[in-house]
């Protein structure tokens, strides 16, 4: 039995009788109660206008005409013709690849020097003169007559000013696809992101000339210089938060689009459609209603986790479609096999010996023997022979929406996956304990979107959970409205547009409870992580961005303060008043002999606290990191630095007196032994 609930010294309230402002004395235990898992604070990610056009650094939108219908207006989204060119998306009889059946067909008058087409990016293109961009596309001539065409690729401002330019000439009878790759070095930075990517098509002859194009791409330098990698400023912001894990690829976006409900499972996220050449990735209409390029695929994710020093919590699709349709048990086998392959891609050695896994499955999934490689061998062929780290696999997403079918789905997925990978921890996504699942889940993913007040009132929610080996992942949480009746309306109905100091300090209060209960809570992540301010489907979000800038919210700084001030042992202390607004959590970093005190004041008045430390030798000064601001203060694109943490030196000793301001998150670090 865990000692936490019995470790109550009571609130001494020294001074309460003496003066108006009561000082709460917090006595800290000399004995740690438990080790704090290193995975405790991390990030939850899915593409909700945040992978394509966000974390994934590709700058062109609708770059390969994936999943669009030629002839519809959507097909040409984000593309426009320039100066007399005719452009159309066609179902190409000779496409660049099976996965990319559509091409952009462009006709220009002979000898034209100005005709071409443009892409407007993800609501803009960031043109930075300190960067060298990589631009590429495929082209072919639809007729076999000999041609000579100059392609000029430019970055242009909205007013038509050329900021970067590079050219190449294609000649001959190229009826098969050829790739052009050019670098672009802007002569000057653009004052805003209102820029375009332009391709000019200049035939040398006088006849009208037609060229087919496919799979365009424009990349700036990426995080850690990975090709097909992550956008530098966004990736650096995510890393700055100090995440230890990354939940992916969803979220709802793991699942089947509601409009496809009951008809097909083809639109689910499929790992194998996201690996290998970009030409082999068909893309999918994701759950949030737009096309995912799948350029940010399984390998790109896994490499990012290595580069960012965090580990995955990876979800597999478990047979449920949003809107209420579940596959019957006798149709699950191929999807279970695909989930084994997905985990194998991360974990298996490249040796073919791992193929014997499939024999173990006793599943009647027929796979074309032609060209089949074990997922581990496939990964090795793509440049990563060593397995990746993978410890946690989540079975579905929010299966409390399909509680009636989850028992057989959970049982069959976990049964087969654990036979293949007994070392993994599997996470259930239904409500804790309801329905009863077999095998008993090793862990549950719990989600909560609520008011700031709810979070402050539920700081003790995990204290009463049994200590029976089951673990918990607070996989999605955020204070999203101050009005309980408006939690799931649109922002104008009462949802917060951006986190506020009130919402963030409420979350911080809750997080002190997560840390106190980190003997059973092994991971926690705010959601959603990223928001493109020009295409938003959910607010508030942890980090906002547009094509050129990033905004760190007050909740981002709250997460950062918790994640980057992580002790390795939890030190019990006088428990806060469950019905109050001031909460704390104390840990010890044994490597530096520091005591780390986290204080969340989610109320509208300051609170005086006195921390009595159980050490004889306490440094006379420590550091304070303080995030505080007005109740409704937010960081926004217009005012991104309204509330930022401030670091200062404070006087410390065996007793540390501290006044926590209203709506604040405070971290005190002091060396003591
Ligand atoms: C993107 O959003 C910003 C901030 O709201 C706005 O100023 C800008 O005009 C928007 N850009 C586009 C292309 O809609
Ligand atoms: C331009 O690039 C430099 C170097 O990577 C970077 O420091 C700067 O923030 C960038 N500016 C913008 C507006 O992205
Ligand atoms: C991915 O694998 C599934 C079988 O697990 C198969 O049906 C599908 O066609 C594959 N998709 C791609 C793009 O390879
Ligand atoms: C594997 O999945 C199949 C198909 O759903 C199921 O019949 C079988 O019982 C599962 N095996 C285990 C060990 O759970
Ligand atoms: C907190 O309030 C609840 C009623 O809302 C009450 O039952 C409980 O005793 C209170 N706890 C404390 C510690 O005051
Ligand atoms: C301060 O918060 C309390 C509840 O904690 C509330 O009753 C009071 O109205 C608030 N005062 C102001 C000025 O907002």
The largest sheet has its strands arranged as 3-14-17-20-21-22-23-24
Cα distance spanning the termini = 29 Å
Overall spatial form:
globular
Bound small molecules, by name, code or SMILES, are: 2-acetamido-2-deoxy-beta-D-glucopyranose
Q: What structural class results from the helix and strand content? A: alpha/beta
Q: Could you name the ranges where pLDDT drops below 50 across 5 or more consecutive residues?
A: 1-19, 352-371
Number of helices: 9
CATH class of the domain at 74-219: Mainly Beta
CATH superfamily of the domain at 74-219: Galactose-binding domain-like
Q: How would you characterize the largest beta sheet?
A: 8 strands, parallel
Number of strands: 35
Radius of gyration: 28 Å
EC number: 3.2.1.55
Enzyme class: hydrolase
Keywords: Glycoprotein, Hydrolase, Signal
Family: Belongs to the glycosyl hydrolase 51 family.
Could you outline the blueprint of secondary structure elements for this entry?
Elements: E1 23-27, E2 34-35, E3 43-44, E4 79-82, E5 86-91, E6 102-108, E7 116-119, E8 133-140, E9 147-157, E10 162-172, E11 178-184, E12 195-203, E13 209-219, H1 232-240, E14 245-248, E15 284-285, E16 291-292, H2 298-308, E17 311-316, E18 320-321, E19 325-326, H3 333-347, H4 356-361, H5 375-381, E20 392-395, H6 406-420, E21 425-428, E22 443-450, H7 452-457, E23 471-479, H8 501-516, E24 521-526, E25 530-532, E26 543-545, E27 550-552, H9 554-563, E28 569-570, E29 582-589, E30 594-601, E31 607-612, E32 621-628, E33 646-651, E34 655-660, E35 664-671
Parallel strand pairs: 1-31, 3-14, 14-17, 17-20, 20-21, 21-22, 22-23, 23-24, 25-26
Antiparallel strand pairs: 2-28, 4-7, 5-6, 6-13, 7-12, 8-11, 8-13, 9-10, 9-12, 15-16, 18-19, 26-27, 28-29, 29-30, 30-35, 31-34, 32-33, 32-35
The chain binds 2-acetamido-2-deoxy-beta-D-glucopyranose (NAG) (6 copies).
One 2-acetamido-2-deoxy-beta-D-glucopyranose is lined by residues 577-579.
């Amino acid at each position: 039995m865990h000692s936490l609930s019995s470790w109550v010294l009571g609130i001494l309230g020294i001074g309460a009788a003496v003066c108006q402002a009561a000082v709460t004395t917090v006595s800290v235990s000399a004995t740690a109660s438990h080790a704090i898992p290193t995975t405790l604070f991390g990030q939850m990610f899915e593409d909700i206008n945040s992978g394509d056009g966000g974390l994934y650094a590709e700058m062109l939108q609708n770059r390969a005409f994936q999943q669009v219908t030629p002839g519809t207006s959507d097909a040409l989204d984000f593309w426009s013709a320039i100066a007399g060119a005719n452009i159309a998306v066609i179902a190409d009889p000779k496409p660049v690849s099976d996965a990319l059946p559509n091409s952009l067909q462009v006709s220009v008058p002979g000898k034209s020097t100005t005709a071409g087409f443009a892409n407007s990016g993800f609501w803009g293109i960031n043109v930075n003169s300190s960067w060298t961009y990589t631009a590429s596309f495929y082209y072919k001539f639809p007729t076999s007559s000999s041609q000579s065409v100059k392609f000029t690729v430019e970055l242009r401002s909205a007013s038509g000013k050329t900021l970067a330019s590079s050219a190449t000439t294609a000649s001959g009878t190229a009826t098969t696809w050829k790739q052009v790759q050019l670098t672009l070095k802007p002569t000057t930075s653009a004052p805003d992101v209102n820029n375009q990517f332009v391709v000019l098509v200049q035939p040398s002859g006088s006849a009208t000339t037609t060229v087919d194009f496919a799979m365009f791409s424009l990349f700036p330098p990426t995080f850690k210089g990975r090709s097909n990698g992550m956008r530098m400023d966004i990736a650096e912001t995510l890393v700055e938060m100090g995440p230890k894990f990354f939940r992916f690829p969803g979220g709802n976006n793991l699942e089947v689009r509601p409009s496809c409900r009951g008809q097909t499972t083809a639109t689910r996220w499929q790992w194998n459609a996201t690996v290998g050449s970009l030409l082999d990735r068909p893309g999918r209409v994701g759950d949030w209603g737009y096309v995912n390029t799948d350029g940010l695929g399984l390998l790109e994710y896994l490499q990012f986790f290595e580069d960012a020093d965090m580990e995955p919590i990876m979800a597999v699709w478990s047979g449920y479609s949003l809107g209420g349709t579940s596959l019957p048990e006798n149709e699950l086998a191929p999807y279970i096999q695909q989930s084994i392959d997905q985990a194998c891609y991360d974990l298996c050695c490249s040796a073919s010996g791992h193929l014997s896994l499939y024999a173990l499955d006793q599943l009647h999934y027929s796979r074309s023997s032609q060209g089949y490689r074990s997922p581990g061998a496939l990964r090795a062929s793509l440049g990563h022979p060593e397995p990746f780290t993978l410890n946690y696999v989540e079975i579905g997403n929010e299966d409390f929406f399909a509680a009636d079918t989850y028992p057989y789905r959970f049982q069959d997925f976990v049964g087969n996956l654990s036979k293949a990978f007994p070392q993994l921890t599997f996470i259930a996504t239904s409500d804790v304990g309801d329905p009863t699942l077999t095998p008993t889940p090793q862990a549950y993913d719990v989600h909560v979107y609520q008011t700031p007040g709810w979070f402050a009132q539920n700081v003790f929610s995990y204290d009463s959970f049994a200590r029976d080996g089951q673990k918990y992942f607070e996989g999605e949480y955020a204070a999203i409205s101050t009005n309980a009746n408006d939690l799931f309306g649109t922002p104008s109905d009462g949802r917060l547009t951006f986190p506020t100091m009130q919402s963030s300090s409420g979350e911080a209060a809750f997080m002190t409870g997560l840390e106190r209960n980190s003997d059973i809570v092994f991971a926690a992540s705010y959601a959603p992580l990223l928001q493109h301010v020009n295409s938003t489907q959910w607010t508030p979000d942890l980090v906002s961005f547009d094509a050129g800038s990033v905004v760190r919210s007050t909740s981002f700084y709250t997460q950062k303060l918790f994640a980057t001030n992580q002790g390795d042992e939890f030190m019990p202390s006088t428990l806060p008043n469950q019905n109050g607004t001031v909460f704390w959590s104390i840990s010890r970093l044994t490597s530096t002999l520091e005591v780390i005190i986290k204080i969340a004041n989610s109320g509208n008045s300051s609170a005086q606290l006195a921390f009595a430390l159980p050490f004889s030798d306490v440094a006379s000064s420590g550091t304070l990191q303080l995030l505080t601001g007005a109740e409704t203060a937010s960081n926004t694109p217009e005012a991104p630095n309204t509330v930022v943490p401030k670091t200062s030196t404070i006087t410390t000793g065996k007793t540390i007196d501290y006044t926590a301001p209203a709506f604040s998150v405070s971290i005190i670090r002091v060396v003591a032994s």
